[in-house]
Design goal:
alpha+beta, 7-stranded antiparallel β-sheet, 7 strands, globular
């Protein structure tokens, strides 16, 4: 394996713990194996999550999902459903789930620096009675990501504290933000995908095809 510019590496778990120590008792004990009332309340208040999946070869993907708070439906103390709304049809997460059902999820609540992590296994579900309950603006999701929770725990706030992500005075000015339409046009590198055309296509998609 070519490690490029990286010459000094940690190569085993023992070396890692020898250098930096083991987790505290609280960190070890905070993991539960069900969706208790605290997990349910957190999920009900979360409008945004990130799901991590990988295929059978270990190629990884992380993808966001978002909607009104409570858009994820908890079915019982082990199972939840994430609705799949219209997207770009790459189906990266779905392709991974079909070959490797393991999934990791981070739930985010605006203004709260801690997050909820849930690890488990996933299926692509099409149960109509459940999908009917997940309608928005009269439209059902295409399908759902059904998750069996195996580990649930709170993740500490250090990443959000360091990034100051919830502090508006740390945000870049709008003029300094990346120009997404230009990035997409340059990456596509096709004559008909100009920055203006991509910008218009994004605008139409966001305004007309959220659900």
């Amino acid at each position: 394996m070519n490690n490029g510019p990286f010459q000094s590496m940690i190569t085993n778990a023992d070396e890692l713990t020898d250098l930096y120590g083991k987790p505290s008792q609280l960190v070890n004990d905070k993991v539960i194996h069900r969706l208790d009332e605290h997990c349910r309340d957190f999920i009900a208040k979360s409008p945004l999550l990130y799901i991590a999946t990988s295929d059978e070869s270990g190629n990884c993907d992380v993808s966001p999902r978002g909607d009104h708070p409570g858009f994820v439906r908890v079915l019982d103390d082990r199972h939840l459903v994430i609705p799949e709304r219209p997207g770009n049809r790459r189906f990266d997460s779905m392709q991974n789930i079909l070959s490797n059902p393991k999934i990791g999820i981070i739930f985010v609540i605006p203004g709260l620096k801690e997050t909820l992590r849930i690890n488990g296994s996933a299926v692509i579900m099409k149960d109509e009675p459940i999908l009917d309950q997940l309608q928005v603006q009269g439209k059902k999701p295409w399908f759902g990501i059904g998750v069996k929770a195996e580990e649930c725990f709170i993740h500490c706030a250090k990443a959000f504290l360091r990034s100051r992500v919830w502090e508006p005075d740390s945000w870049p000015a709008p003029s300094r933000l990346p120009k997404v339409s230009k990035i997409l046009a340059d990456h596509a590198n096709q004559e008909n995908f100009t920055e203006e055309a991509v910008s218009q296509a994004l605008k139409e998609s966001y305004e007309k095809r959220l659900y």
